[in-house]
Amino acid sequence: MTQQQTIALVESLDHEGRGVAHVDGKTIFIDGALPYEKVIYSAYRKKPTYENADTTSVLKESFMRTTPRCPHFGTCGGCSMQHVEFTAQVAIKQRVLEDNLKFIGKVKAERILTPIAGPTWHYRHRARLSARMVPKKGGVLVGFHEKNSSYIAEMSECHILPKNISDMIMPLREMIAKLSIHSRMPQVEVAVGDKVDILVFRNMDAINAADEKLLQQFADTHRQPDRPVQIWLQPGGPDTCYPIYPLDAPRLTYSLPQYSVEMPYYPTEFTQVNPQINAVMVSRALGFLDPQPGERIADMFCGIGNFTLPIARSGATVHGMEGSQALVKRAVENATHNGLQDKVSYEMANLFEVTPESFAALGKFDKMLVDPPRDGAIQLLKAMTDDTAPQRIVYVSCNPATLARDAGVLVHTKGYTLKAAGIINMFPHTAHVESVAWFEKTGPAKSLKEVADMEAAEEAIREAKRQARKQQEAEAEARKQAELAEKAAAKEARRQHYLANKDYYDARSAAQQQARDAAAAGEDVSSKE
Hints:
Elements (H helix, E strand, L loop, with lengths): L4 E5 L2 E2 L5 E5 L2 E6 L6 E9 L3 E11 L25 H20 L5 E2 L13 E9 L4 E5 L19 H4 L2 H10 L8 E6 L4 E5 L7 H14 L6 E5 L8 E4 L7 E4 L4 E4 L10 H15 L6 E5 L7 H6 L3 E6 L2 H13 L6 E5 L7 H5 L6 E4 L7 H5 L9 E6 L2 H14 L2 E9 L9 E8 L6 H53 L1 H27 L1
Parallel strand pairs: 4-6, 7-21, 11-12, 16-17, 16-19, 17-18, 19-20
Antiparallel strand pairs: 1-5, 2-3, 3-4, 5-6, 8-9, 8-10, 10-11, 12-13, 14-15, 20-22, 21-22
Catalytic activity: uridine(1939) in 23S rRNA + S-adenosyl-L-methionine = 5-methyluridine(1939) in 23S rRNA + S-adenosyl-L-homocysteine + H(+)
Protein name: 23S rRNA (uracil(1939)-C(5))-methyltransferase RlmD
Pfam family, one: tRNA_U5-meth_tr
């Protein structure tokens, strides 16, 4: 065992699915390790207070461990938890949410919801696959990036993509290699709709007639009965993509049958990757929101209307806000497509720069649904006052840490109670945690002075922790320098000892060499005899 390989007892998993252990006062985050396991790990990044490491071998296995289904697991970065039994994956994610609420937001839900889970495999209907010509590996590679690397994993199949898309990986590699621009086509975006599969090729140079014929042949070869494969090109940004073959393919859509909603969208536009789980998530969120005819409801970070249109089906009036003009345009079109244009309105706005004044200008909302990106919605929530705060907020989150932070704001400063929270396993076999939370207005908000005093106290605590961390890092650096100085002093002492006794050591070395020469001469004589 080398100095870099050490034994550790794994205590828990972090939010990225890594095993957490403590060795010699340091926190060690170990890829591939599970709670209660004893592992040998090898560190690949060392900091004064923590290390990142890979599992070298497992000395004692956890009951959670299972055999990964995909042969590329461990190399491919698309999944990080295939080695964890599926029900344990869900339990781990639920624990991540609860721990974040407890330790970051310092809140506790009155009710923890049963996790929403669905298909275990072949669930991912949207993906961005990288493509690159790698002669040393026999041609073009198509797939996800390797774990902790910019290299593309050498993939022949993928068990989280739909089966028909997984079956295209090897043919895609072969077809792209034949294109005249094979070195100028860095990605293939996949969008699987209700009636069509779309492949968007990012072409950094124009294709020629032979390339177009190859793409058409690929689409014809891999189409299924009543389900075409449509080829798109994307010469620039996401808004430059366009279809080239076949031009009569069905429109790309997904459906929410419970609400009689069909959502057309472009293949480069954001939609949830797991349509089965999305339908259940919308149902749960609207169950908590409980929209009623006559209510005015806000849908913040509304996207193309994934929640807006189901809310409108209830008879409520909905105002959707989104930071992307392209998504707002698609949301307006989708409202018309579903005959709901009289029940919804949309507005483009930067929801990370909301002020109390700009929020008040929107008018009073009875309820609000919030579905922000990973950064959360803290500025939006801080902008609410007792006069403008809705009675009920349903918060759909893709980051439990920012949900917990924002929950702390709602509960501790805005007068809300966290009624319920739970996870949505949108991305099986990854560490990604989607969740939903229901907040109800049950008391007055704190005054501006009270909030300022609270924030000042919290900042003082954070500053004290920063100083303690700096002190710890300084002490660790001092120990390191002391060890280096001790080693340097010992080395210099040995050098000085040698210089002071050089004649003795030179004579001893000469005698040893003479002895070796004599022994060698004796061996030569013996061999000749």
